[in-house]
Amino acid sequence: MRNDEIERPDDTFSALFGALPVGALAEGPDRGVLAVNPRLIELFGLSTAATDLVGVDAAELIGRIAERCVDPEGFTDRAAELVAAREPVEGDEWDLRDGRTVERSYRPVDLPGGSGNLWLFRDVSATRRTVRELAESEERLSLALSAGQLGIWELDLGSNDSPVRSPRHDWIFGYEDPIDDWSVETFLEHVHPDDREDVRRRFDAAFETGRWEFDCRIHRADGERRWIEAQGEFHFDAEGTPTRAVGTVEDVTDERNSREELKRVNERLDQFSSMVSHDVRNPLSVALGRLERYYETGDESNLAPVETSLRRIEEIVTDLAALARYGSTGDEHGPVSLPDAARAAWAMIDTRSATLETEPVTLIGDESQLQGLFENLFRNAVGHGGPDVTVRVGPLPDGFYVEDTGDGIPSDHQDHVFEHGYTTGYGGSGIGLTIVDRIANAHGFDATVAESAEGGARFEFRETAPS
Questions:
Q1: Is the pTM of this model over 0.90?
Q2: Cα–chain-centroid distance for residue 347?
Q3: Domain region containing 345
């Protein structure tokens, strides 16, 4: 049967076929072209009118189209495979030499005179470009979120379901793998109990303002306590009812710790400057005054006070240097035997006939700094308690203690012993116990003073309650 003998499409079909928004090619049983719409001509830039292509060999026309492709041989071979298999195919994409991308679909059709084929071609360049740009945008967003250490989340307030949550979000809360369920209540369960009511109030206020921003403490799933910064907003429907919440969380623990450490450093610098200015001025004034008298009168009795003042300055400078040195936690932390550190400190001072007693205690710390803590306490105990004083170092459930059998510290002085300038009256710079307090704080202990069973001084060092 000749191609021109096959039943031609009627006018209605021709009109519909010609109006298709995609390129269309219909071929008959002998692979002759039955119809081509104008969109196909436009899509591939063919120079022949659509009506002039009716009756030509469809394989030849497909070959002409293939010349526009980056891979013409692949285009024609694949077309032959589809015709032979006669299985419908969608979304067969091909790149054109001009940079565009077309999607080819194939449909086997039954015609009155036998089997035919229908080809549809659609320009998907804009779609592919959009998909690529979206993928690139998502990649940039992912990189930005990763660089910014942000966790993102979304919550459907109707279903209380969280359809969007980044892995970083769940990691911040201590989950190595994403968890299935997340809600406002799940979040609040992680919030530190002391912060929970404040966080609830901020969320309640956000129903009015639409936004929230706050810092709070959380308990991670692994038990670690961290600080986070939370920001987000509610989305409302036309009636003003909140339907969706989106937000970010960021672990700001290190940032807060850095700010606190910087604050402490600045406070120590101010304190150090004040100490140098205040403590050195008096003995320096005495020394200068006595030297001036000596030069005026030649009286050598003025030199003894000069020597005393200079030794006092030396003592103050030594203690101030120690105070500066013990102002941070240091980098040499490890298991420390307190009896060993205590005995090392005991050997460094003039203990006269005093006695040291110890019980086994081990903690994580800087051995050199802890030895400095003991040196200051032992010097204070021997100097204040007399030559035969007994000093004991022992454990507490949450720390350790150092006590002596001396005269003790009056109860109305106990709240002030760690202040700079406090002295027990037997001499010293008034800095020693400030150093003790500084070292204790650097190791996570609160230092307090009380009375021992024998009436002497008892210094207790207990773990600082977490904030």
A1: no
A2: 46
A3: 330-467
